[in-house]
Design goal:
Elements (H helix, E strand, L loop, with lengths): L19 E19 L2 E15 L4 E6 L3 H4 L3 H9 L13 H9 L16 H18 L22 E3 L2 E3 L4 H14 L4 E4 L7 H11 L5 E4 L9 H8 L4 E5 L10 H4 L7 E3 L6 H10 L4 E4 L7 H13 L3 E4 L7 H11 L5 E4 L4 H4 L17 E3 L12 H7 E9 L5
Parallel strand pairs: 5-6, 6-7, 7-8, 8-9, 9-10, 10-11, 11-12
Antiparallel strand pairs: 1-2, 1-14, 2-3, 4-13
Helix pairs in contact: 2-4, 3-4, 5-6, 9-10
C-alpha cells in the first residue's frame, strides 16, 4: 500500500542517485457541489485517475488526469488499461538531477491506440504519470514544478509571476441559479467570466442580456462545446456579439473545424479551439488551416505539463494565443499543476482552474488552492514538487480501485 503523506512535507535527503521504486494508479470518484452543465455533458461527479510514484528513498509524488471520452476518447477504465499495458523499462533507471528526471519522463512511450490519428488517446493517463514522477523528483532535488517551464527549451514563453488572476464560469442553464452566480461573480471580480452556451432549450441571447445587465464591466467568453451546426455558426455568433465577447470557444464539432477558416472572416470575435486542440498534431493542423486564433490548453487533455508547454511555444511561434483551461472536477493536484503553468507562461489570455472549494465536496490536498474571494487572485507555489500535501484519508475515501503499475526489483 502507499506510504503516508509525511514523506511529502519536505524534500528527502539523498546522497546519491534515486530511481522510481513503484508506480500505482487509483480510480477515484469526486462528488461535485454543483451540477456542471454544457452542450456535451451534464456532470454531478468526476471520475479521475490519480497516480502515485514512490522513489527508492521513500519520497512520494502524485499526479492526476481527468479522462473525458468526448474530449480525448478516454474513460477512466481505458486510461487505466493503457497504463497497465505500458512498458516501464525506460523510467527504471538512476536519476541524478531534476533535469534528468524531466528527460526520463519525456521519453516515456504509452501504447498507441488504434484509429487515433490525432495521437490523443492516453493523454489523461500520461498527464497523471508525468505529474506524479516530476512531483516526486522535484521533492528530492528541491525543485519547484515551475522549474520545468524554466528549462532552456521554453525560454521564449517563460515568464515567472508571483501571482495569477483566475476567471469565473457560469455553467448552469437554470436562470435562478444563473442570476445568483452572476451576482456572485460580479462581487468577486475575476479576470473575466466564461458562459456556457448552446445548451438544449436555452435562449442564449436572453441569457447573455441578463448576465450583461448584472455584470456590465466583466469581459465575457462563451463556450459552445461543439453545439452549433457549421451552417448556422456565423449567425449564432453574430447574435451574441453585441454583448461584447472576448472569445468564442469550440463553436462546432471537431469534424467541422475546417469550416472555421471561413467563419473567422465573417465575425469579429476570436475563435478558441478546445476539443479540437489536444495534441501537437491538432495544433499543426489548426495553424496550417487557419481554424482558430487561440488554443485552450488543458494539462490533462493535452498530455501533461511538457506537451502543454510545447503547444504554448508552438502557438507563439505561429502568431496564435493560448489560455489555460481546466476540467470541472479537477482536484488540488491538477489545480497545483495548473498554478505552476499559469505562473510560468507568458501571454495567457485567460486562466481557468483552482475552483476547488467552489466545486468539490472532498478536497484531496491539505492546502486550499481556491483562488481569493476578491479579485480571484492566487499566489505562485514555491515549495518543492507540486508544492501541495495530499490528504491521504481524503484520497482513500474517494478511491474506488487501485491498480499496481510498476514495482522495481531488489536490484533495480
Amino acid at each position: 500500500m502507499p506510504h503516508n503523506a509525511a514523506m511529502q512535507t519536505a524534500p528527502a535527503a539523498t546522497s546519491g542517485p534515486v530511481r522510481i521504486a513503484s508506480l500505482l494508479a487509483r480510480r477515484i470518484l469526486l462528488p461535485l457541489k454543483v451540477k456542471v452543465e454544457h452542450a456535451s455533458h451534464v456532470r454531478r461527479e468526476s471520475e479521475n485517475v490519480v497516480v502515485e510514484c514512490r522513489l527508492s528513498n521513500g519520497t512520494v509524488g502524485y499526479g492526476e488526469g481527468v479522462p473525458r471520452e468526448y474530449v480525448t476518447g478516454e474513460t477512466c477504465s481505458r486510461s487505466l488499461d493503457i497504463l497497465k499495458r505500458t512498458n516501464w523499462a525506460s523510467v527504471s533507471r538512476d536519476v541524478h538531477s531534476f533535469e534528468e528526471a524531466v528527460t526520463v519522463v519525456d521519453a516515456l512511450q504509452l501504447p498507441a491506440e488504434p484509429d487515433d490519428d490525432r495521437g490523443m488517446v492516453g493523454n489523461a493517463a500520461r498527464c497523471a504519470v508525468e505529474l506524479a514522477i516530476l512531483d516526486a523528483f522535484g521533492r528530492v532535488f528541491d525543485k519547484s514544478f515551475s522549474a520545468v517551464a524554466a528549462l532552456p527549451e521554453f525560454a521564449e514563453i517563460y515568464e515567472p509571476k508571483p501571482k495569477v488572476r483566475y476567471t469565473g464560469a457560469l455553467t448552469t442553464k437554470g436562470m435562478i441559479k444563473g442570476r445568483l452566480f452572476a451576482w456572485y461573480w460580479k462581487f468577486l471580480d475575476p479576470a473575466d467570466v466564461k458562459i456556457k452556451v448552446g445548451m438544449p432549450n436555452c435562449d442564449d441571447v436572453a441569457r447573455l442580456r441578463i448576465f450583461r445587465r448584472i455584470m456590465p464591466r466583466l469581459p465575457f467568453r462563451i463556450d459552445a462545446n461543439e453545439a452549433w451546426p457549421a451552417n448556422d455558426v456565423v449567425a449564432r455568433i453574430r447574435a451574441l456579439e453585441p454583448f461584447r465577447l472576448s472569445l468564442v470557444e469550440q463553436p462546432v464539432k471537431h469534424a467541422d473545424v475546417p469550416t472555421l477558416s471561413e467563419v473567422r472572416k465573417q465575425i469579429s470575435t476570436p475563435i478558441m479551439l478546445d476539443e479540437s486542440l489536444c495534441t501537437m498534431i491538432d495544433g499543426e493542423r489548426a495553424a496550417n488551416g487557419g481554424w482558430g486564433d487561440v488554443f485552450n490548453i488543458r494539462l490533462s487533455k493535452c498530455g501533461g505539463f511538457l506537451r502543454s508547454l510545447r503547444l504554448a511555444l508552438f502557438a507563439k511561434r505561429h502568431g496564435l494565443r493560448c489560455q489555460l483551461g481546466c476540467h470541472p472536477g479537477e482536484s488540488g493536484i491538477l489545480s497545483a499543476a495548473g498554478r505552476h503553468f499559469a505562473c510560468s507562461v507568458a501571454g495567457l489570455v485567460a486562466v481557468e482552474g483552482s475552483f476547488d472549494d467552489y466545486t468539490l465536496k472532498q478536497r484531496l490536498t491539505e492546502e486550499d488552492l481556491t483562488f481569493s474571494k476578491r479579485g480571484a487572485w492566487a499566489p505562485a507555489l514555491t515549495r518543492p514538487g507540486l508544492g501541495v500535501t495530499i490528504d491521504r484519508e481524503g484520497l482513500d475515501s474517494v478511491t474506488k480501485e487501485i491498480v499496481p503499475l510498476f514495482e522495481a526489483t531488489p536490484h533495480g
